Amino acid sequence: MATPAMQSPAGELISGSSRPHVMFIPSAGMGHLLPFFRVITALATRDDVDVSVVTVLPTVSAAEADHLAGLFSAFPTVRSVDLHLLPFDASEFPGHDPFVLRWESLRRSVHLLGPLISGASPRVSAIVTDVTLTSHVVPIARELGVQCHVLFVSCATMLSLLAYVPVHLSKKAEPGPGVGDVDIPGVQRLPQSYLPQWLLDLNKLFTKQFIDNGREIINADGFLVNTFDALEPVALAALRNGKVIAGFPPVYAIGPLQSQTSATEPDGKQEHTGSPVAWLDEQPARSVVYVAFGNRSAVGRDQLREIAAGLEASGCRFLWVLKTTTVDRDDTAELTDVLGEGFLERVRGRGMVTKAWVDQEAVLRHPSVGLFLSHSGWNSVTEAATAGVPLLAWPRLGDHRVNATVVVSGGVGVWMEHWSWDGEDRLVTGEEIGEKVKEVMSDATVRARAARTSEEAAKAIAEGGTSYRSLQEFIGKLKATQD
């Protein structure tokens, strides 16, 4: 397969530069791409760093394609390097999540990156890779003599789990089918029920990827993590002090990451008349429950009906971004069919339901929003922490329960630990949902803790703050490669 030369958007070859050239290698899924976009745009607004992005084609979702197009349109100095994946037979892994399959497809095509990196002009100073590709990209970078950093898109607590699981497995007295409870040195003991469901089966594709990456991360040059010291002081200290793994690479807590511009949002649809933000403008302060379960957390139909019943019973105003499929291109269901006849009419005026893309940062910053009912994906947690909106955590899959522990310890919100997730034994009833929503909406203590966390987030990214200094330290390390 031919490897394209590094080119600018206009097509001309890029000449040499004394600035460090950072090549970003993101993975699939908006939960992974958004943190990359935010770091990329933060560097692209500087005049002392060159940036290129490996664009993996084809994209999985329409949202990915739209946001990538928006990124390159808004920042023409950021260069796209296309990586066309090799053919991949997904039937080898029946029933797997399409994003996990994409990660595997990427891993099998990742050797194509070698020529892209070595042939780039200006010379690549450093790579920033997604953690899902660590076990393959770090060895390539080491062979080419290029720094390789990992942008970790979850919390520092999850990073400590990833780093420690291979050691944990080597110490297990009884092999067993799953990972079991994990006691992470210097951090906390995580019951098996908190872990990603896939880790309950060591033969699962995701589990093998997870363990492979966990073994290799010790060889990375550093970790960029979308968190801040006041949010996860224990986990960050344990990683930095070598309590989790001796000799662990530097950890740069640079969060909470924020969008530099709305230009990467597709079409600016949220600004149109009748849009979610326009609807929020008409609502009283702190009166709206924002409900969203992420870009790849499809909720079952029966549970969706219970959520609808709970929101209706709560009596609260609500904005619900509804998703019925894992991949947005497959989502063709009509709202009436999903939510039941008459629901939209009964809540007209105090409730809005949409399947459109929503600028979540703008929604959470809106003064009418008083609560966020969320899957506790890490981007959502940090965005809620930044906005000071209490988060009611209802984990759905993956790292969400680990994240929920930070929601509680970091003062972001509350976690209904007994609420089940997909594949478990019961539905959470509309009555439970409605009662909890009303309770948290009126809890002044929860609101006050969320407000304090927001203040700490603002301090972290302000000039001289902990995250500001971490980013400057990382950029200094990049520049040192040019000396």
Automatic annotation (TrEMBL):
Record protein name field: Glycosyltransferase
Annotated GO MF terms: UDP-glucosyltransferase activity
Alphabetically ordered keywords of this record: Glycosyltransferase, Transferase
InterPro entries assigned: UDP-glycosyltransf_plant (IPR050481), UDP_glucos_trans (IPR002213), UDP_glycos_trans_CS (IPR035595)
Family statement: Belongs to the UDP-glycosyltransferase family.
Pfam families: UDPGT
PANTHER family in the cross-refs: GLYCOSYLTRANSFERASE, UDP-GLYCOSYLTRANSFERASE 708D1-LIKE
E.C. no: 2.4.1.-
Key word ATP-binding present: no
CDD domains: GT1_Gtf-like
Organism annotation: Digitaria exilis
Gene3D superfamilies membership: Glycogen Phosphorylase B
Top-level taxon in the UniProt lineage: Eukaryota
Keyword check for Cell division: no
